[in-house]
Amino acid sequence: MQRRDFIKLSSLLLGAGALPAWSREALSGQRPLLSTPTLLEADLHQRIDLTAMAGTSTWNNHSVSTWGYNGSYLGPTIKLRRNQPVSLRVHNHLPVDTTVHWHGLVVGGEVDGGPQEVIRAGAQREVTFTPDQPAATCWYHPHPHMTSGFQVAKGLAGMLVIEDEHIKTLRIPSQWGVDDIPLVFQDKKLTDTGTDIDYQLDIMHAAVGWFGDMMLTNGSQYPQVALPNGWVRLRLLNGCNARSMNLALSHNRPFYVIASDGGLLAEPVKVEQLAMLPGERFEVMIELTDTKPFDLVTLPVTQMGMTLPPFDQPLPLLKILPLRIGGAAELPDHLATLPPLPSTDGLTRRRIGLSMDKQLDTLGMQQLMKRYGHQAMAGMPMHSSMDMADNNHSASQQHDHAMSTMPGMSKAAKGYDFHQGNKINGKAYQIGDIAWQSPQGQHEIWEISGEGDMMLHPFHIHGTQYRILSENDQPVAAHRQGLKDTVRVEGGVSQVLVSFPHTADKQAPYMAHCHLLEHEDTGMMMSFTVGK
Fold this sequence. Notes:
about 35% strand; five-stranded mixed β-sheet; 8 helices; globular; about 525 residues; mainly beta
């Protein structure tokens, strides 16, 4: 809901006596109002136009240079309908090349938006496809080789929702911006002048990922939103480059997960906390039973670099102000019928080993400690090779300024090129290298291993919505047993059951990669094809 719509609604509700005691504070503007992304649907020609462009956003009373789609920051929510053809035309008004990946959409490699499908600065690209997958909350973002992290950090991201006939039969909240609320979370760090995003891909960030010191919800710091009493639906997207989150409600009430990356779960799952990896989406329902305001917060997580203030304690993301007026939505006992898991006997198994170069790992940890102290290690032990007293000076020599040829990049350290320090099966990503071809329409088991490496790796596979068989050597939590495109790998092995309904050839292969974007940009990605 836009600000003018909120004020108009508030005026009506005041007359009806629907606003409780918090209304005076809310309308006074002491906190920013939550901005709801506009819904962007196909026109009469079944076309949607999207423009990547530069602009400015206001944070901390500074005008900050940002990028967005059809605006200065983030983008509209694209709404697609199952089995309805659509053409998406992307105009690149940025000073750099880009791509747009439709993250979570099960489409062919030629329209998936990987690193090969470059849109040059000043050019445009149009893709046409017919989505054929259940209703889901997906998203779109850049995927250029080696600069995905930089472009997402600048603000290029947006939600994409798919609607089908089944979800219309459920009495879950569906009024966009009223009881169906999209929430995009991104952390940011600004330069000392406060006028630009302080993005650097140096040795430290190549190791632990790029992280900020403020959190934005739909582009605002700790906004507020008035919601009707009864059941409301929150669509959650962790759009951070590297930061994992752990969501909870400040009044310690539970909420119910109804959908994950690929759509509805079989039934609601009650949780008190919800961990979210970078790139993951969940839909949750919350019951508002009184008019007392409360916060949606993210709790501290155990992840290197992510424990620094203000993230070292519960951080409010959104203030929720319940109205006296009630909604008519319900929490169903049954949500969807998921296809049964097939027998795994005789299925092809593929091993994907994720690894970080030991020199990158050591130098990255040293830089992290040098800049932020032991608190940044999130309680994790130091490697024996990391004698800080002896090596701090050596590590600092490895850190350099931004590369002139690539925005947001830094020069390779003297004698060591960290830009290929992250690997899959012993190889850093190179455009044109194909790991293998998977058969179209057949199930396979992919085993993704982070053994010997304790870093977090949220692993994403293009062209599929899969089922997790085991996650980091542990049984799969109930709310993660639906359709997924991102799995947690952190020192262990995760097994996923994949199947690819579409083809992807050598000119436009699918990607599989760590969605900690700085790991992706420095090599932890592979290409594969799908054919008959």
